[in-house]
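pasting for ref
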Amino acid sequence: MGIDIELDATGWLQPAAGITLTASPNFNERPDPADISLLVIHNISLPPGQFGTPYVCDLFLNQIDLKADAWFACLQGLEVSAHFLIDRTGHITQFVSCNERAWHAGVSSFEGRQQCNDFSIGIELEGTDTDPYTEAQYETLQRLTCRLADRYRLRAVRGHHHIAPDRKTDPGASFDWVRFSQAANRPELNWPEVARSSQDQPSNS
C-alpha cells in the first residue's frame, strides 16, 4: 500500500508509519515563501557506498562523529540539510519544513535563477550514482512528489547535476528518470529532457 503521505500547512508531513520527523538546525527563511517551484533530487550515502548507517541523519543534525570513518574528515564544519531523505527501504525522514529554506543545493542555477535553495525542495535518496535505487524508493519518491505538487506550485523536477553541473553528478546514471516521471504522471512538472523524450515516443503496443 505504501506510506500514507500527508503534508500540513506548516510544511511538515503528518506522523505516520514509515515517516520520521527530525528537525535539523540547518535552515533559514526563504526570500519569498510563496515561491517554491523546483524539486531537486540528490543522492547520498555515508560513508560513500555504505547503506543503512546513521551518518546521513547525523550529518544533517550536525551530530556526525568525524572519527567514525577516515573519509569524514572532509565533512569538518559542513552544515547542510535536505527537506527529505528516502532510505533504501522507502522510509522518509523529514529534516526541514518545506516552507523553509534547506541547505541542499549549494551554488546552483536553474533557468537563469541563482541560489536554487531559495525556491526549491530537496529530496535525498540513499544511494550512489552507480547502484540501482530500490523499488521502495521509487514508490515513496513518486508518492511524495505528487503530494508536494498538490501543495506547492512546483513547475519542474531536476537532479542536483542539472542545477550544479560543474560540481555534482547526483542522482547519477543509476537513476531512472523515465520510470520516475511516468509513475508520477505529472506532465506539468517540466521533466528533464530524457524523461520528456521518452514520453513523446509512440507506443509499440
